[in-house]
């Protein structure tokens, strides 16, 4: 499994709705609200052969209330 993170900017007043929609879809490992330029930081896992770009485009960016996304691809987890 490959981990990656998506930072999400939401429409004003919609961050809790977006977080709930992601949680209800059961597609995320962890969902955090954040301060600063982005509203949410979400951790996802996909199988190595799954396309991250397609997942973000089709499963994340189509959620109502999302204004922008920024995807961070991970390479190695240090323990």
In short:
This protein is 25% helix and 35% strand. It has helices at 15-25, 52-60, and strands at 2-10, 30-33, 40-46, 66-73.
Describe this structure in words.
With 79 residues, this protein is an alpha+beta fold. Helix content is 25%, strand content 35%. The protein has two helices and four strands; from the N terminus they run E-H-E-E-H-E. It has helices at residues 15-25, 52-60; strands at residues 2-10, 30-33, 40-46, 66-73. It has a four-stranded antiparallel sheet, with helices on one face. A hairpin with a 6-residue loop joins strand 2 and strand 3 (40-46). The mean pLDDT is 97.
What is the N-to-C succession of helices and strands? EHEEHE
Q: List the uncertain runs.
A: none
Class per helix and strand makeup = alpha+beta
Strand order of the largest sheet: 2-3-1-4
**Distance between the amino and carboxyl termini:** 16 Å
- The fraction of residues in strands falls at 35-45%
Output the number of helix runs.
2
List the helices and strands and how they pair.
Elements: E1 2-10, H1 15-25, E2 30-33, E3 40-46, H2 52-60, E4 66-73
Antiparallel strand pairs: 1-3, 1-4, 2-3
Please give a handful of descriptors for the protein shown:
single chain; 2 helices; 79 residues; globular; 25% helix
């Amino acid at each position: 499994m490959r981990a990656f993170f998506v930072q999400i900017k939401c429409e004003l007043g919609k961050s809790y709705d977006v977080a709930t929609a992601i949680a209800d879809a059961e597609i995320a490992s962890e969902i955090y609200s954040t301060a600063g330029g982005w509203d949410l930081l979400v951790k996802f896992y996909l199988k190595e052969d799954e396309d991250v770009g397609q997942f973000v485009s089709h499963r994340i960016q189509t959620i109502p209330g999302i204004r922008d996304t920024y995807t961070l691809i991970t390479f190695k987890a240090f323990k």
